[in-house]
Write a structure and sequence with these properties.
The protein has one domain. A hairpin with a 2-residue loop joins strand 2 and strand 3. The chain is globular and about 65 Å long. The chain is built from eight helices and ten strands. The longest helix has 30 residues. By secondary structure, it is an alpha+beta fold. The two termini are 36 Å apart. Helix content is 35%, strand content 20%. The strands form three sheets. Strands 4-8-1-9-10 form a five-stranded antiparallel sheet, with helices on both faces. A three-stranded antiparallel sheet has the order 2-3-5. Bound molecules: zinc ion. Zinc ion (ZN) binds next to helix 2.
């Protein structure tokens, strides 16, 4: 029997938006974590095949439909880095607590039974006695983030030529590196659906500690993820593009105006007005956000907490597998 653990201080403001235990069948309970991802070193955001940055054309702002080009921070890039970081966090906690590790790693050796797999989703490669084991659907969703400022203001091309270490002679070929310059901001949203408070804490801890994104992270790619807001509801209330365009409107109205927690709160309130189940939407106030952020930061993730998260994951998998067995038996009849 799992011990009843107290939530970190500040999480009570999200009461009613957590589920008791993770289950394969989802509820509408949704929590959106609103972030400003702040680039701190040259960041290379490109897909492997090209040397170009990923860009996209969007409106300039919420009330200006001029088309501008923005750098796109693809959802897969954010998700990949953070999923790996959650894996590393769990491994570290397991070492601390002397818990055997399932050696779960991306992308072809996911264990399908740990807190990371049941939250981020996993494709099962194992085979049961009667049937193929079910896959796990993700309950954390990422979306593409767009640079707050247009492409020409944030992109930088550096040319360099390799220097031979032996001869110190500069090579003949000129290499080009396209990157996003430091101080670029990417308003971004991570959406959690049907999660427990423990999963929420693990997610915030992970987002907070993840510092490297993009290609070639050995030479840069540092990013700080700043928590700017939280909105909960029975649906997704806002998308990153909407948030970006609303922030751009503020910045254009008042030159150089930077995003703040207060402005973010106002934007979230504005989007509450568009929700299908408006009365279910809760925008955390600045004080609530502050208290939650401190509570999570100060939470040390004791052994019982990690134990309970693993127990939830095991129960989730057992429930899912027994359902799959039932279905296979029914179909066989
Ligand atoms: Zn796993």
């Amino acid at each position: 029997m799992a011990t009843i653990m107290a939530m970190p201080k500040g999480l009570e403001s999200l009461e009613g938006y957590f589920v008791e235990r993770p289950e394969p069948l989802l509820t509408n309970k949704t929590i959106q974590v609103i972030l400003i991802r702040e680039v701190l070193d040259y960041l290379i955001l490109r897909t492997e095949e090209t040397r170009e940055l990923n860009t996209v054309f969007t409106w300039r702002s919420q009330d200006d439909d001029t088309i501008v080009e923005r750098v796109a921070f693809l959802a897969t890039k954010q998700k990949g880095a953070e999923s790996r970081e959650l894996g590393a966090l769990l491994r570290t906690l397991n070492q601390r607590d002397g818990r055997p590790d399932d050696s779960c790693y991306l992308k072809d050796r996911l264990c399908v039974r740990c807190p990371r797999c049941i939250l981020f989703g996993a494709t099962s490669t194992e085979r049961g006695r009667e049937a193929r084991q079910p896959n796990i659907r993700h309950r954390v969703a990422y979306s593409t983030a767009f640079s707050l400022d247009p492409f020409e203001e944030v992109a930088e091309t550096t040319t360099f030529n390799g220097v031979s270490e032996a001869t110190t002679l500069t090579g003949q070929t000129l290499n080009v590196r396209n990157s996003v310059r430091p101080a670029t901001l990417f308003p971004s949203i991570v959406t959690l659906q049907s999660v427990t408070w423990k999963e929420f804490v693990l997610t915030l801890k992970t987002i907070g500690k993840t510092k490297r994104y993009g290609a070639e992270t050995r030479i840069g790619g540092e990013v700080r993820n700043n928590l700017f807001g939280i909105v909960a509801g029975w649906e997704e209330v806002i998308t990153p593009l909407e948030y970006t365009l609303a922030l751009a409107k503020e910045a254009l109205a008042e030159e150089g105006k930077m995003p703040t927690v207060e402005i973010t709160g106002q934007i979230l309130e504005q989007y509450r007005g568009l929700a299908s189940m408006k009365d279910k939407v809760k925008v955390l106030t600045t004080e609530e956000l502050q208290s939650l952020s401190e509570g999570v930061q100060g939470f040390e993730m004791p052994k019982e907490f990690v134990e309970a998260a693993y127990e939830d994951a095991r129960d989730f998998r057992e429930f899912q597998s027994s359902r799959a067995r039932e279905e296979t038996t029914r179909q066989a009849r």
